[in-house]
Amino acid sequence: MALGGSGRRPAGRCAPRTQTSDLDPVIHYTERMEHATSCGECGRRLPESSDLPVEQRQPCPNCGSLTRHFSRYASDTATTNDSLSVAVAMASGPRPWIELWHQVKHEYDELAAMYSGERGVTNQQEILSTINNFFVGCYSLKDHIRQDQGVPAAVRGQVETYLQGDAALTLCGDVANTVKHHTRQHGRTARLSDWATLPDGTVTAMFGVTDLSGSTTKYDALNLARDAMAAWQQFINDNGLI
Question: Where in the sequence is the domain holding 221, given as residue range(s)?
């Protein structure tokens, strides 16, 4: 519709002007170190102080354990001088290694259930994802232990050497690095070469591990996973991490 007259805005009917505050909001950040306590058996976070005497601990409500894992992380709090101030606390530090350990144990249980037929699979991608997820997490555990400040420095310093000295964990690294990288420039290549869902619902899967000479060796995925879990459990037990 065309505007009447000159098209100018009628006097006294100017658009409302947006008022701005003379004092723009200022954001203040405060960083502090927080301590977290979790169950040493199941990994559940617990509302306990890290200096609580052992004899005063209450059983974990999830599993009943009295063992504990302690970690530290950075917490940032942001506040403004606005009338509607909001404080937000964000945990910016890495998660404790034990959380990944329990995730890896869960992934192993999923793999074992898939093998036994207890967990039905509907397609090949589900088989690939279940197996690859376990081996990537299992290998990544060494980085989480090495970087967790709640773990004694001596233990953090030896985890890489321990992994390199264990055949199963080294193969886990080959699988994980093959999954994560399109092309491996160094080291062995480890890919799933054979997998199948049998008529009874069970699953089998084999890795083909190829060395630099081109020679390939086959490994059963569940057997390799079982050996890797046993190796990590030995390291955890020997160093009193749980």
Answer: 97-238
